[in-house]
TrEMBL record:
Signal peptide: none annotated. Residues 4-230 form the ABC transporter domain. One of its GO terms (molecular function) is ATP hydrolysis activity. The keyword Nucleotide-binding applies. This is ABC-2 type transport system ATP-binding protein.
Amino acid sequence: MSVLELRDVSRWYGNVVAVNGVTMTVGPGVTGLLGPNGAGKSTLIHMMGGFLAPSNGQVGIDGQRIWKNPSVYRHIGLVPEREAAYDFLSGRQFVRSMAKLHKLSDPDAAAERALGMVEMAAAADRAIGTYSKGMKQRIKMASALVHDPPVLLLDEPFNGMDPRQRLQLMDLIRKMAAEGRTVLFSSHILEEVERLAHHIEVIIAGRHAASGDFRAIRRLMTDRPHMFAIRSSDDRRLAAVLIADDSTRGVELTSTGLQVEAVDFLRFTSLLPQAARTADIRLLEVSPADESLESVFSYLVAS
Ligand SMILES: Nc1ncnc2c1ncn2[C@@H]1O[C@H](COP(=O)(O)OP(=O)(O)OP(=O)(O)O)[C@@H](O)[C@H]1O
């Protein structure tokens, strides 16, 4: 069992601050690193994998520093976001070459074991260039697992996958964690993280914004103010009814209808149809106006 520890970690590229004072601990099981594009997830993962030096702070595993410490590299496997660039190699050749790079005592046996773990033994003699997206992800995973590390880091592993490949990879990641590994994967898709991770760390604009199980993160998200765009048979009267209730903080009459800011999501969504019916107003359209992940993230940052 291994534990990754980040203490006040920052990383900058010239004057771009990619990661800013992040402290977190990642233990066994599946952890999701959630954040919008450009939040600093890859930078964090590369520092945890020993590929990148922190500009400030410490990144460690089981009490040992990771950067420039080859003795701990055996404990970490990293599956990068980029496609494997060795399309001319067969899957087996690629995984074997990784086993040799790790100077394993029996690289061929290690490669077979890793190929078996990701269920790629049958397709292992085909060139990587002929693989589907899901197969490429599996072969990258086999190469990251060839030295049987207790820590597995995956950068945006589901990008570009179809739903079936996504489910297969989720099963595989769960299996890796069930075997006692510390597995961390990054994603910008909340539902993906929710389905797979038992613990979530949220990163926004380089900063650590929230942490907890998916219920805690969901709660943060439903507790935030919600904007709704509403059209009805009598917008002016509906505005007066809504603003009289505590669940609503603001109502604006626009050229197309109403913009409503609800502060109590559950109460508001049950009040709205009731209030409209009582006042004999017909609701023509109710749509969430700010459900993008970006707006959820910006709320978390501000809180
Ligand atoms: N080598 C680099 N030189 C300069 N800036 C960089 C470099 N690598 C990353 N950045 C910047 O650092 C910030 C964080 O990037 P990073 O790739 O870590 O984010 P991310 O959350 O992984 O995003 P994505 O999912 O889009 O890859 C971004 O503003 C990015 O432009």
